[in-house]
Specification:
By secondary structure, the protein is α+β, with helices and mostly antiparallel strands. Helix content is 58%, strand content 17%. The structure holds guanosine-5'-triphosphate (GTP). It is an enzyme of class 2 (transferase).
């Protein structure tokens, strides 16, 4: 089905109001047409009844020519308020008596009538005529039954009556106005009820649709008021609110787990899982920053390479787990002895690097020697045995003399190598001369 562009509220209004409006229009039209017909028929029946009553009543007066009788007959019409005019003719069409002023009288037409008939209509009136016959002649000569027109017997006169149809028309118009008024009242009440229905259903549904759109756009804490009149819609609103709360909570939990996992990953990416110290990647970044700072602002610092001595022996004789524990113990020594601004990391195997920031050559040597002694003094116990190791430390000053990270690394490595070569367990600074001689 094609989706409608109209809102649910407007569709509900249309569904209720359109059929009602069409039905009322049809009812009003039918009622008006029927009212007109009934009025016409009522006027015709009344006019014909009056002339049918008048003709036999006037028979004797017409035949006798008695003006008293004729006046009496016409006088009987006084009580008929809608009879505007009445005229009595003799057999030759001569005027016998008249009451009121006829407006649409056509005498020739009246004289042609052989039975009670309705004639022309106009100027707010309708004319009726009936022949006056001698009942004695009719019964004797034609033997007609009552009510049957004795066509072969010549009338002895005619009666003509004009009915004022204004009153009947006014009544009809009044009835029409009433019908139209009732129709409008019905439409008005239906519109109010339809509006209430459309609002009570359409507005909550529109609010729900809007809330769903906001949720789809990422606004998860959206809620709708659950105070709608209808029980079913209220259940729907409560269901939506509880579903939205569940989704928001699930999203919050998921987000905090993602944040936790991201933090862990970020930590793992820059830390050594065994000792918890920063790893080689973190070291490279830190060294780049230190070298750049010395280049830029002349900051002084030192890089120390530490390679443990005879570590392999511990591994080989007490096992890898012992080696791991020893590496952790060495890491603790570094942590305890270094200042907050310094940096220590495990760059791999039994090798560590220290970046000492803002320190002079003598300070660097002192710190390195202190580390060397602390590691040499370490009594590592494992499996009831005690192990002693040492550390060979080579250092290089970062003081603007060397300008690249690669150069600093190479020189520190060279210094450490020279210590290993010269018997281990000592501290040596990189020397250009010694390196040249190596
Ligand atoms: N337990 C343990 N051993 C490691 C780890 N990484 C490297 N190793 C071992 O550390 C040792 C390092 O080798 P070397 O530096 O030659 O050993 P060393 O006995 O210290 O030798 P020197 O430096 O010449 O004194 C090797 O046996 C590696 O297998 C680790 O994460 N855990």
């Amino acid at each position: 089905m094609k989706p409608s562009r109209l809102s649910l509220r407007n569709r509900l209004l249309l569904t209720v109001l359109l059929p009602v409006a069409l039905l009322l229009a049809a009812l009003v039209s039918a009622s008006i047409v029927r009212g007109e017909r009934m009025t016409e028929r009522a006027i015709a029946e009344r006019g014909l009844a009056i002339v049918s009553f008048l003709a036999p009543a006037a028979e004797y007066g017409v035949i006798s020519g008695s003006s008293d009788i004729i006046d009496n007959v016409l006088g009987a019409l006084r009580s008929q308020g809608d009879v505007a005019a009445a005229v009595l003719y003799d057999r030759d069409g001569g005027l016998l008596a008249q009451r009121g002023e006829p407006r649409i009288l056509d005498v020739a037409q009246v004289r042609r009538t052989g039975a009670a008939v309705s004639l022309s209509e106009g100027l707010g009136r309708k004319g009726f005529a009936a022949p006056v016959r001698s009942m004695a002649l009719v019964v004797d000569e034609l033997n007609t039954s009552p009510g049957q027109e004795p066509e072969g017997v010549a009338p002895v006169g005619w009666v003509y009556v004009e009915i004022d149809i204004g009153g009947h028309e006014a009544e009809r118009r009044m009835a029409q106005s009433l019908t139209i008024g009732m129709a409008f009242l019905t439409l008005f009440i239906t519109t109010i009820l339809a509006l209430r229905l459309a609002n009570s259903v359409g507005e909550p549904v529109a609010r729900l649709a809007q809330a769903v759109r906001r949720m789809a756009a990422g606004e998860l804490d959206v809620q709708v008021p659950d105070t709608t009149g209808g029980e079913e819609l209220r259940a729907l609103e409560r269901g939506f609110n509880s579903m939205a709360r569940s989704i928001a909570n699930a999203h919050k939990n998921l987000q905090s787990r993602i944040d936790e996992a991201t933090e862990q990953l970020a930590h793992q990416a820059l830390h050594d899982p065994l000792t918890g110290l920063p790893n080689r990647r973190a070291f490279e970044r830190a060294l780049e920053e230190t070298v750049a700072a010395s280049r830029r602002a002349g900051d002084r610092g030192a890089l120390c390479f530490v390679d443990l001595d005879h570590f392999k022996y511990v591994n080989d004789s007490a096992g890898h787990a012992a080696g791991d524990a020893l590496l952790r113990a060495v890491a603790d020594i570094f942590r305890q002895r270094l200042r907050g601004e310094d940096f220590v990391c495990r760059i791999g195997g039994d090798e560590f690097a220290l970046i000492l920031r803002g320190c002079a050559r003598e300070d660097a040597r002192r710190v390195a020697e202190g580390m060397c002694k602390a590691i040499a003094d370490l009594r590592f116990e494992w499996g009831g045995r005690e192990f002693r190791i040492g550390a060979s430390i080579g250092f290089v000053m970062i003081d603007g003399r060397v300008t690249t990270v690669a150069e600093v690394l190479r020189e520190a490595d060279h210094a450490c190598y020279s210590v290993k070569r010269d018997g281990r367990g000592q501290v040596a600074e990189y020397s250009v001369l010694a390196a040249g001689g190596a």
